[in-house]
Structure formats: C-alpha cells, structure tokens
Amino acid sequence: MDLTYSNLFKTIDLRKGLQLKNRVVMAPMTNFSSNPDGTVSEDEVNYYIRRSKGVGMVITACTNVTANGKGFPGEFAGDRDEMIPSLRKLATAIKEQGAKAILQIFHGGRMCPPDLVPDGNIVSASAVAADQGESTGPVPRALNEEEINYMIHAFGETTRRAIEAGFDGIEIHGANGYLIQQFFSPHSNRREDRFGGSLEKRMTFPIAVVDEVVRVVNDHAKNPFIIGYRFSPEEPSTPGITMDDTLELIHALADKELDYLHISLMEFDSSSRRGGDDTRSRLELVLDKVQDRVPVIGVGSIQTAEDALKAMKTGVPLIALGRQLIIDPDWVAKVKEGRESEIETKLDLQGQDRLIVPDPLWNKIVTSPGWFPGVE
Fold first, then answer.
1. Architecture of domain 3-366
2. How do residues 194-223 score in pLDDT, each as one tens digit?
3. Are 240 and 230 in contact (CB under 8 A)?
4. SS3 state at 238
5. Active site (annotated) includes residue 178
6. Out of 47, 48, 150, 178, which one is annotated catalytic?
7. What's the predicted TM-score (pTM) here?
8. Cβ neighbours, 10 Å, residue 364
9. Residue 173: what are its φ and ψ, rounded to 5°?
10. What are the structural domain ranges in the chain?
11. What is the mean pLDDT of the chain?
12. Under a CB-based contact definition with an 8 Å cutoff, are residues 262 and 228 in contact?
C-alpha cells in the first residue's frame, strides 16, 4: 500500500464500543431489486457480498418502517416481524465479508408513489405537495398527533427488528426529502402544534425518533449497537431548510447517543446556498459545529483514491462511496494493495455479470443518462 493513503486504513472506535477496520463506508443506495413480498432477493444478497469485502461498514438501502412508508419499487421491508428472517439473511451476508452491517430505516412520506402504499394514502407533516421540477407531486394528508406518535414508535420497532436480525446498527434516514426531513423543513411542515412552527418545534419529530431508537437499543441490544443519522444540509425550495437550520439540528444531534452523523451531498466540497459561511464547504461547516462530539461521514462524488484523500483533509473521519462501489467493487482492495491506478471510474456497460448488479438496478442505471459516468 502507498503510505499516502494509510489514513484510509486506520481503525476507528465508535461510541457504542464497536470498531471499524477502516475509514471507508458503503453509502446507502436504492437498488429496486427486492422480492414482490418485500423480502431481500438472492440477487440483492450477492450484490452486497460483492461490495462488502473491503469497506469497514455497509449501510444498506432504505427499509420502510410502516406499510405506507414505501418509497421505491423493489424496496425490502422492515415494517413487520415476518421480515426478520429476510433481514437476517442480508445482515449475515454482509458481516461474513468482514464489514459492519447497518440497516437504514426510513419513511418516504409525501415522496412515496401512491401505487406503493395502502389505498394510495400518502402522508406527511402537512398537506403540502413536493416540488418536482416543473410540476408538483400529489398532495399528502397531514398526520395527526396520534399517528405521529405511532410513526415514532414504528422507527423503534424496526430498530428492534434490526437487532433481532443481527445487524450491527441502524441509520436513521433524515435526508433526501423523506418524512423525517419533511417534519424539519419549513416547506413541508406548516403545522401549528408542538411538531411545527419554529425551528425548535420542527426539530421535535427528528429528535423524538432518535430518542425512541436510543431507548429501544438500550432496552433490547445485548451487544454494542451502532446508531447513525443521515441528513441533507439544505433544500433548494423557498421556504426550505437553510444551512443555519441544519447547523442547529446537528448541534442538538451531536449531544445525543449517536455513533455518527452522515451528511448527504452530491459533491463533498460543495458550498452552502443560504446561510452558514460561504467561504467554507458544507462539510467543513458541519465539522466545525460538531467539534469532535460524534464522527461525521462525508460523501459525494469521491471516485479516486486522491479524491478520498482530499475529502479526509477536511478533517472528516469517515468517507462513503456510493456509485463508485457499483462501478468498481474492488476499490478498497486496489488502494490497499497499491493498485489505485487500476481503479475504474466509468461504468463498464458490458460488465453487469462481473460487477454483480441486479437487473432492476442495472436497467435503471443504463436508461438514466448522466447518472453514472460512462452512461451517455
């Protein structure tokens, strides 16, 4: 190994007592490839096995915590106990490759396609449709307080299932415009009760989910169990989440019993649109606010070993690879073995079998120009 990249292979101890063997994480990515009944497919298991050998931690695609939270076709479910054997199969496959297995849990809220949820009943913090480019999505029904409390409980229940299935931890998906973010956002949350209004009140639901997950872990986990939280720093809409809003949220989260915070970015060195300090990147602003209280995972268009090194020079202790691990599942091994010059950065359009990518995901990639390098 080129010692230039040795920092990528240092171990890191998390709050709950688990140690990651290196600083590289597989980012959560939807793969559209589960069975129709919500169980994990064999193709999915093989896809994860192919990518779990080198990284220190694998964060799975999202799993819905309630039946009306399903955000994607081919999404595996975590909303009922019958799914535990399916989840166990995935956790075991990842862990057998030497990586920590983290289940990402979420509810799609107003972003759920109506045909994927019971009776097409789309719900959110308020009855405000999502902006979708030149159009808007369906108008969701605002959850009442009893339903909100049930939703908080559901995040805890899916955490319990993850524990029983043998996962090493869960990631609360509070990013990318889904339900938790919808409660935090002034665009989607127009409530006037304790769950909406001021910035502090809009933080009530995300913090309540974290507290419930922590309670469940303390009550049910016999071994150290990782809890992470993913967030998006800003929204393009007006009104919408600003960088200043997010810095207040992560300031509160950093004092919770979390093992990491995971920022969702397209470019790891991108600057803020509104709020914050425009002379520093969003990632640098987050690191400054957190002040080493909890590790941060940085992500966003990291392709080469040099990109990873540049990201880590910001001070971020962990980096996540998403599309790059689909393009080159051997990324970590190549860097560790001094073969970083052999890293593939464009998708081999003839390489589906070699890369072990399930048909639904592969078809989505090759029919979406610009999503992956090499796909025109």
1. Alpha-Beta Barrel (3.20)
2. 999 999 999 999 999 999 999 999 999 999
3. no
4. coil
5. yes
6. 178
7. 0.97
8. 19
9. -90, 95
10. 3-366
11. 96
12. yes
